[in-house]
Amino acid sequence: MSPLIDGLQYANWSERIFRQMREGGVDAVHVTITYHETFRETVLNIERWNRWFERFPELIFQGFTAEDVERARRAGRTAIFFGAQNPSCIEDDIGLVEVLHRLGLRFMQLSYNNQSLLASGCYEDTDAGLTRMGREVVAEMNRVGLVVDMSHSGERSTLEAIEHSTRPIAITHANPASWHPARRNKSDTVLRALSESGGMLGLSLYPHHLRGGSACTLEAFCAMAARCVELMGPAHVGIGSDLCQDQPDSIVEWMRVGRWTKRIDYGEGSADAPGFPPMPDWFGDNRDLRRIAEGLRAAGLDRDEVAAVMGGNWRRFFSESFGPAARAGATAAAAGRDGRAAARREGTGG
Amino acid sequence: MSPLIDGLQYANWSERIFRQMREGGVDAVHVTITYHETFRETVLNIERWNRWFERFPELIFQGFTAEDVERARRAGRTAIFFGAQNPSCIEDDIGLVEVLHRLGLRFMQLSYNNQSLLASGCYEDTDAGLTRMGREVVAEMNRVGLVVDMSHSGERSTLEAIEHSTRPIAITHANPASWHPARRNKSDTVLRALSESGGMLGLSLYPHHLRGGSACTLEAFCAMAARCVELMGPAHVGIGSDLCQDQPDSIVEWMRVGRWTKRIDYGEGSADAPGFPPMPDWFGDNRDLRRIAEGLRAAGLDRDEVAAVMGGNWRRFFSESFGPAARAGATAAAAGRDGRAAARREGTGG
Fold this sequence. Notes:
2 copies of one chain form a homodimer.
Chain A: E1 5-9, H1 15-23, E2 28-34, H2 39-55, E3 60-62, H3 67-75, E4 78-84, H4 95-102, E5 105-109, H5 132-144, E6 147-149, H6 155-164, E7 170-171, H7 188-196, E8 200-203, H8 218-232, E9 237-239, H9 249-257, H10 289-298, H11 303-321, H12 327-334, H13 339-346
Parallel strand pairs in A: 1-2, 2-4, 3-4, 4-5, 5-6, 7-8, 8-9
């Protein structure tokens, strides 16, 4: 039986939510542990998770390898995989890539809406692509097994990350811009390049990424998912719900504003609607993930395709992505911009 | 065949030293990675080691579990286990115990010569024993599998650490004060309590810990080792050479002075001899560890005892110490000062 995996959540974590994960039969979740935090602040967030793991060992544990998904399923628990939505946590120090990977970080966005030291964000006017440090850090992420996530990055940066990375990358939470032209959604050009390179798209349930926003129906979402499977192939689409359950509006402000501006930046929101948008009534917590499986079946996906989208694809991607690169891949990474091509020649791109 | 393990070194690491480890057939070394450094500075030191592991994969790799000793032997490499000589690396934050253990820290001294937040050092006039935070941190170290090392601590603190810890502790590098009454050497009371609780003593080759200093002979050292085996039993003695190979004298000054004084503190040295003392002529680098094995045989230890002292005991101690505590042990640790007794009752004391 295929696992149930959510490719991104950032909830206001509590025992209640962990119990809902179990009620929903969720085997693994990629959780955001840091946005604009420095390394030391990120470690404090990890310490907070360590206390939850210690306190609720019968509900959750930290995932490090793809096999932890099966360990979770066998033990009736949920494996929690760490991710960063911005590279602030590595500061200006490439050595922190390996250190954070050792601490369990498995995804890192190269930028969050704005320009970072590594890449451009989707809200910048100009996207100059991967920076010098960005190319070095992608090679290091490839080496240790930290997944490049371009969910909040600009188009050119994303295409260059796909090209430069010797291993498939992810867009953990976004939808096709052809369905809903939000800045955070992705062009068909990006989605095709992503799937052709072996990467993964996690479909987002966040209302600003949905046609019709909070009023989007399960049917409309699943019809979009089915078209996405047609565009990208059934092996490259998963769920990345972007569930921000129980978060106060002060958090979405922090996500958008961090410490980079003294003004309010509304991001995907507006002065009229500055807070978290209400979730669609058919998706409020982890127990509702199963509804999506039913909806996908109704939208015409066959049983195997539904299993793949609901977790099988993430499971395969985890197994290809979380370990150290084969030596040939590491060499290819060192070779720089021809990395992907070199890795393909040597058969280590996956 | 029993492994060859050195229980403490702090060299000025280089390819030359790593190659000497291989020439000497050293399977594992506990290396000091931090003294007075903050957490962030300690992580920079780990990053430096990560670069060595990346650069010399055919010579060394980072050890995390006791089984890595056999992995090292099979692959003809040396497993490097991290340790801290002072708890500065956890700052005032107990959560960093688990974080540093995840990064591979396997030993931590509760104090280094001076009073720390956790315990008193052997150079303080008054030793008030474990502090409130010290007791909490020992319980947390017991829980995650980070070994309490009392090499530079005061007598009362050391006895209380032995008593309070639910798992055996170590004195990784010191000799009996009855043989050479240096401040850093340990009383028979401490050594007996250490061995009776299942702990380990690593015998030091550092000249200030040797009778006769740099002129101490191999025969005298091995005769002392044989008496130590008599006092503590053959299962509780190992080597902790305290080899500081190729270090400039500025380093021993940093070790003693850190940032706690503006004056020079000579520690075990003196104004006349402020630097590193010259090593005995029979112990200059990792290739000389084998001489000690020969010397122990000449001093009357049988073949099994020599194998135990040269690495077998550390190997067993690693397997008892580096993993998480059994749940019962964790509960006992939470019970505080009755920890050891409770753990003994439940048979989880290690």
